[in-house]
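Hi F.,

I've been meaning to write this up properly since the lab meeting, where we talked about keeping a consistent format for the predictions we share between groups. The idea is simple: the sequence comes first, exactly as it goes in, then the structure tokens exactly as they come out, then a line or two of notes. No screenshots and no reformatting. I'm using this chain as the first example so we have something concrete to point to.
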Amino acid sequence: MPLVRVQVIEDVFSAEQKQEIIAKVTDAMVSIEGENLRQVTWVLVEEVGSGNWGIAGKGLTSEDVLALQGGTVSAAG
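Output, unedited:
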């Protein structure tokens, strides 16, 4: 029975977006493992504190990720 953990930075995704992540990751797993395992496929969305996720030696904040979603900054800041 698979457990898929998805880590995201806090305060970036809405409750609706997190539900969409859960649904689509579940669908992806079921496409591999078969429909019979849908009922036992677990997806856990974990939020990591803003600044506690580092890329290129720099802590990434919620604001950085929101800016990335808008295409206004590079991942390295």
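Notes:
The domain at 3-69 is CATH 3.30.429.10 (Macrophage Migration Inhibitory Factor).
The helical segments are 15-33, 62-69.

If this format works for you, I'll send the rest the same way.

G.
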